[in-house]
Structures are given as C-alpha cells and as structure tokens.
Amino acid sequence: MAEISLMAQDLRLNRGEGEETTPIARLVARAQTGNREAFDQLMICHQHRVVALAWRLLGNREEARDAAQETFLKVYRHLASFDPERDFGAWLYRIAVNVCRDHAKKRNRRERVWDEQEIYRQPSAEDVEQWAIDNQERRLALQALAELTEKERAAIVLRDLEGFETDEVARLLGSTPTTVRSQISKARAKLKDLRARRAHSLDRKA
Amino acid sequence: MNCIHAKELLPLFITGDLSAADMNAVGEHARRCESCRAQTAEITAARDWLKQAANPALDEDFYDHMRAGVWDRIDAEANRPRWWSFILPVWTSRPVLAMAAAVLLAVFGLIAISDRKNVSTRPVPPQDVTAELSAPAPEPFATADQRVAPQYKRRVKPEPAAPRIVVPAPAAPISPLGDMAEAASDAESIEESGMIRIEIQTADPNIKIIWLAPKPAAAKSDPIISTTE
C-alpha cells in the first residue's frame, strides 16, 4: 500500500527527466503485457482524481462513475499502443477530460440538470453535525460550478481544483493559454460574486 | 493603473497568471487601494472555498463498483467476436442502419433485374407455331406436304376444357422418314376404326404428343402428322 500511496502522488503532467522508472511507469509496463492486476492497481492509483474530475465537470455521481469507467476502458483498449516514454498521467487525464466533455454535450442535449441533492458518504454518530455542514458546502460548490459555462467550468476545475498550470490546461482543453486565462478570470469573478450574494442572503436571514 | 483596470486583472493576479509588468503594476496598486485589496481577498477566499467544498467524498464501495464495471466491460468486449465488436458501435447509429437497409434493397433489386434480363436473353424462338387442334378437324397439318419445318422448341400447353396443343417451331429439321413410316404403320389400325392419329414430336425427344380425333373428310387422304426435330 505504501507503493500505491507513492504512486497516487505521481500524477503531475510534467515530470522531469529520469523519472520514467516510477512505480506508475512500472505498472504501465506490466499492464501493457496484459497483467490484469497491474491495470487494476493503475485504476486504484488514479480513480480518485479521475472520479473527482468527472464529478466536478458533470455534477453528479452517476455520470461521474460512467465517465470514469469509460475513461479506464479507453485506456485499457489503447494501452498496448501507449508510448512508455510519455507521461501516463497526462495521457489518462486528456482521455478523462475528453470523455467528460462528451458526456457534458450529451447531457446538454438531454437537458439534465445538475443533481445538487445527492447525499454523500453516510456520517458516523460522532460527526453528524460536521457531515451536514460539509454536505451543504458541497451542494453550494456544485451550484456555483453549475452557474459557470461549460468552458469556464472546465478551465477553473483543471486550474484551481486539479492544480494544473495554465499552459497544461490549454493543452488538455485543446485551447490557447490566452483563452484559458480569460475563462479562468471570468470564472473566478463569477464565483466571487456568487459567494458574496450568498453571504448577503445569509446576513438578511439572520 | 486605475481601479477599473486593476479589478479586471485581480482574478489572474492571485495566482500569478499575468505578465511580470502587470503583476508589478497590480501589486503596486493593491498596496495603495483598500478596495482592490478587499477584492483580492474575496477572490482568494472564493477559490479556497471551492477547493475545499468541491470534493465528492465518495466511499470506497463507489470506487469498487466503478472498477468492477470496468472489468465487466473489458471481459464483455474480450468475449465478443472481433468482427462484431468492430461493427457494433457503427450499427448503433440510425443513419448507418438506414443506409445498410437501402444497400440491401438495392442489391436484391439488382439481382432481380439481372435475373429477368437473363430470362429474356435466353435463345427464344423468333416465332412460335401454335396449333389449335380442335376435334374433329386438324386442318393445319392435313397433309405431309403441308408440314412446316419445325425449327424451335415446342411447348405443350394442354387445356382441360378445350384441348389445345401449343407447338413451338423446333430448331431441328424434319424427323427422319423412318419415324414417319413407323408412325404410319401404327396409325393404320386406328384409321380403320374411323379415327385419325396425330403425332407431334416436341423439342424433347422423349416427349411425343399423340392426338386421336374423328377422321374428317378432308384429312382422310393423309391422317398421319408427325413433326419431329
């Protein structure tokens, strides 16, 4: 498990030279030979970030799960042709972003709204109050993301929540750094206004 | 730099996504402007809040189920025939389905048309000799001299109510005299009974049509008709 926890941190897009023999790279090499256990370990290492990305971009668990499954399925299908010299995390993330964007387009056609009433992880008896606060904050965060346009949401999720640099976000979204900066700027300004409105409404209720 | 311009750049200023010149200018302005400082703090707080709140917090069962679904789909694809896995994604599209149906119809149509063409281009006799023999007068073949040389296949089309024999002109020449003589000898006994015997050889050498009819007055002189290939 120590190896896995190390691998989970090895997901940055830009890795320096000499880092090719990371645990992830070794797992990729084994999975390319058809080793199912190695591929399962790869999924375990990346599942939290892939699901979180999908959940933030799509706004509900069911679509996030579908998108994550489809992402890993595509990775499995094309793993044999993957160049081990390349960054596996970057490749995986690019696939995940594309899958989520496809899902978002389909959802727009179906006019499905973001599900803000989902209940996540049942609380234990000790932390019911904290669980309720976290759940409320989570819903508000989803509401705030839902207020953004699809492109603004993708840019802000990848830049602020996933921690990619602006140039990396541009590459992932197939856009330019200037466009991404503009989208991030608008998204941050909107989120600031949304939060200010919420604080104002809470003050009025109080 | 004035406040309006600085506030436009503040969302990018908080993470250093500006050029060095803009970063210096905005920073210098924010140090002197309380409103811009407050706005910078609001943007940063909103960003931090989103980072903290926008986490799915799903339990491990969710991830186990997700991975199990991936393996189910991988195994299903592995068990699927290769050609089927290639075609399946395509066939889910309705336009492709419609196009395939149209191609099938076109293929069947072409087959049907070519089949009809083959039938019509078969060597068909340029003219059919149709003889309607209605008892008691077989006048068209009353005498051997009046026999028309058959050149094409003959068709026999019997009709129960009014017997009708269709004799297409066969391609072969007139039958040899030996056959005629044999037919004549067989007919002698029939002639004695007051009947006329008409023999018609069809295109198929194994099929010979024999017709017995009351002897008409005009046909008494030559009651035997035999047309063979």
Structural account:
The complex is a heterodimer of chains A (206) and B (229). Chain A is mostly helical and 206 residues long. Chain A folds into 2 domains: 115 residues, RNA polymerase sigma factor, region 2, helix turn helix motif (Rna Polymerase Sigma Factor, Chain: A), CATH 1.10.1740; 81 residues, Winged helix-like DNA-binding domain superfamily/Winged helix DNA-binding domain (Arc Repressor Mutant, subunit A, Orthogonal Bundle). Chain A is built from 9 helices and no strands. Chain A is globular. With 229 residues, chain B is mostly helical. Chain B has 3 domains: 51 residues, no CATH class; 49 residues; 98 residues, no CATH class. Chain B is built from 7 helices and 5 strands, in the order ααααααββαβββ. Chain B is rod-shaped. The C terminus of chain B is likely disordered.
What is the strand and helix layout of this fold?
The complex is a heterodimer of chains A (about 210) and B (about 230).
Chain A: H1 2-8, H2 23-32, H3 36-58, H4 61-78, H5 88-110, H6 128-147, H7 150-161, H8 166-173, H9 177-205
Helix pairs in contact in A: 1-3, 2-3, 3-4, 3-5, 4-5, 7-8, 7-9, 8-9
Chain B: H1 3-13, H2 20-32, H3 34-53, H4 60-79, H5 82-91, H6 94-120, E1 130-131, E2 165-166, H7 177-192, E3 195-201, E4 208-214, E5 225-227
Parallel strand pairs in B: 3-5
Antiparallel strand pairs in B: 1-2, 3-4
Helix pairs in contact in B: 1-2, 1-3, 2-3
Overall CATH architecture of the largest domain in chain A: Orthogonal Bundle
> How many discrete domains of chain B?
3
Under CATH, the topology of the largest domain in chain A is which? Rna Polymerase Sigma Factor, Chain: A
Broad CATH class of the largest domain in chain A? Mainly Alpha
Annotation keywords:
heterodimer, A: mainly alpha, Rna Polymerase Sigma Factor, Chain: A, Arc Repressor Mutant, subunit A, 9 helices, 0% strand, disordered N terminus, B: 229 residues, mainly alpha, 3 domains, 7 helices, disordered C terminus
